[in-house]
């Protein structure tokens, strides 16, 4: 196995923070801010430098902000010659769009268009069908599914939304459903931590967004690309000629199979190193729990390039 093989991973919504663009202002990649602003119809500079953290939690704003920083991180890594050994990409939820752009399957304009449309559709779906999310810690998938089944038997609407790694399963559902699981979790030796998000993402409550996204998908071009991207919905690698529109729609209402995706990168695809590109180091923490033997580096600031 080639020890130089590297995978690129991109974080998702929830990694945004106030002033997240400040470290990137003096880099060559900052030029992307104007381009992304033009394609999205959003003042991305304002978003990355001056938008208050509470406002930045808004789904559509958070998504374009995280995508923008991920694209700047990727551009700086490429400029520094760090990507020559890259053989595959993957992204967590929203991060999948950054992965598709980095892989050359989407160009920047189409990537921005889809992130913008997706964020707006998810925000509207969340407003129409109120829901929330919670992280179930100290529980595996089997325990999580048992708690979900127990909640459903009591008439609650709740689903597994992210399989993030050992001892971390994220659930989506109605407010009362998440509260019910939080009350029942200690009996399973687990604990549920509420996630401050505006919707029950990656669940059937996002079906209105899944109904809207195809209109945006029909307007963009999916190219052959340079690298395969490991899809959230099944943890399998796909080239640019795959049915990415169908995968993108499924992703909105299906669990993010992140643990399986990491095993595909480090097992099937033989990546001995992973590079996290974008804000924060959330994925590095998850990856270390999934595959402790793999080297993972987070490029969350320009000075991390050196």
Automatic annotation (TrEMBL):
Cellular component terms per the entry's GO annotation: cytosol
Keywords: Acyltransferase, Transferase
Residue span(s) of domain Malonyl-CoA:ACP transacylase (MAT): 9-303
Transmembrane segments: none
Biological process according to GO: fatty acid biosynthetic process
Entry's EC annotation: 2.3.1.39
Pfam families named among the record's database cross-references: Acyl_transf_1
Gene3D superfamilies: Malonyl-CoA ACP transacylase, ACP-binding, Malonyl-Coenzyme A Acyl Carrier Protein, domain 2
Any one Gene Ontology molecular-function term assigned to this protein's record: [acyl-carrier-protein] S-malonyltransferase activity
InterPro entries in UniProt: Ac_transferase_dom_sf, Acyl_transferase_dom, Acyl_Trfase/lysoPLipase, Mal-CoA-ACP_Trans/PKS_FabD, Malonyl_CoA-ACP_transAc, Malonyl_transacylase_ACP-bd
Active-site residues from the entry: 93, 202
Enzyme class: transferase
Reaction it catalyzes: holo-[ACP] + malonyl-CoA = malonyl-[ACP] + CoA
Stretches for region Disordered: 1-23
Signal peptide: none
Top-rank taxon, per record: Bacteria
Similarity-based family: Belongs to the fabD family.
PANTHER family tied to this protein: MALONYL-COA-ACYL CARRIER PROTEIN TRANSACYLASE, MITOCHONDRIAL (PTHR42681:SF1)
Protein name: Malonyl CoA-acyl carrier protein transacylase
